[in-house]
Amino acid sequence: EVQLVESGGDLVQPGGSLRLSCVASGFPFSNYWMTWVRQAPGEGLEWVANIQQDGREKYYVDSVKGRFTISRDNAKNSLYLQMNSLRAEDTAVYYCASEDSDSGFDYWGQGTLVTVSS
Amino acid sequence: QSVLTQPPSASGTPGQRVTISCSGNSSNIGTNTVNWYQQLPGTAPKLLIYSNNHRPSGVPDRFSGSSSGASASASLAISGLQSEDEADYYCAAWDDSLNGYVFGTGTKVTVL
Question: How far is B63 from chain A (nearest CA, A)?
């Protein structure tokens, strides 16, 4: 059974930092692109960033460039999102998802809530 | 920021057919394939349709997708609407200009 389990969400002050983790199981993690998608309270989905299988290629939505860094550790079947200089508008549930070039985001985690507030 | 435009809501009675549109541009739907996601209340999104018109294993054939590169638009159809289809639906595609994925604005489907 495929499982993606996110963790690391918390309440943080504006300007603060947070590191999200996503542990994968049940599929060949190192063979997949991985992605982060977020959803602000009551809002729609927003793609945040993705990373190639070997970690060399990474892409980000403009609003997080220079502040967020996506990374992975294939030996630990883990995906990460380092979030710095957090803003109120970064408040959202953050989902990790496996990404297939032909079939999109095929598996999703349950999400972890990040709240940026003073 | 959503680049793909969807109607905010759609509805139908049980058994009816509902269609949801997704409008983009030449950088996204005009060039790349479209995927659709279903998000039931309080849950994570789930892949519903991939590569314009393919269903993952386990998705009922009541769900179908289509896409037109020429018009940079796509649509999702739900036939034989059921109460368990009440959910939010999102289209998504890679955008060559933004070098990232873009989601649609989302459509809430209500079964009357």
Answer: 16
The pLDDT assigned to A102 comes to: 81
Question: Which distant-in-sequence residues (6+ apart) come within 8 Å of B99 by Cβ?
Answer: A59
Q: How far apart are CA A28 and CA A102, in angstroms?
A: 16
CB contact under 8 A, B99 and A59: yes
Nearest to B78 by CA among B10, B1, B19: B19
Interface of B with A in 28-87 (CB under 8 A): 35, 37, 39, 44-47, 50-51, 54, 56
Q: With left for phi above 0 and alpha for psi between -120 and 50, is residue B106 left, alpha or beta?
A: left
Amino acid identity, position A26: G
Say how many CA atoms lie within 13 Å of B99 toward its Cβ.
7
Q: Write out pLDDT tens, residues A90-118.
A: 999 999 999 987 889 999 999 999 999 99
- Averaged pLDDT, A23-36: 97
Site of tokens 């190192």: A30
- pLDDT number for residue B1: 59
Rounded to whole angstroms, the Cα distance separating A95 from A97 reads 6
Asked whether the beta carbons of residue B45 and residue A35 sit closer than 8 angstroms, the reply is no
Pair type for strands B18-23 and A112-116: unpaired
Flag whether pLDDT at B2 surpasses 70: no
**Cα distances (angstroms) measured from residue A30 to each of A37, A51, A78, A94, B50:** 19, 11, 9, 21, 22
Question: Which pLDDT value is given to residue A35?
Answer: 98
DSSP-based three-state secondary structure for A7: strand
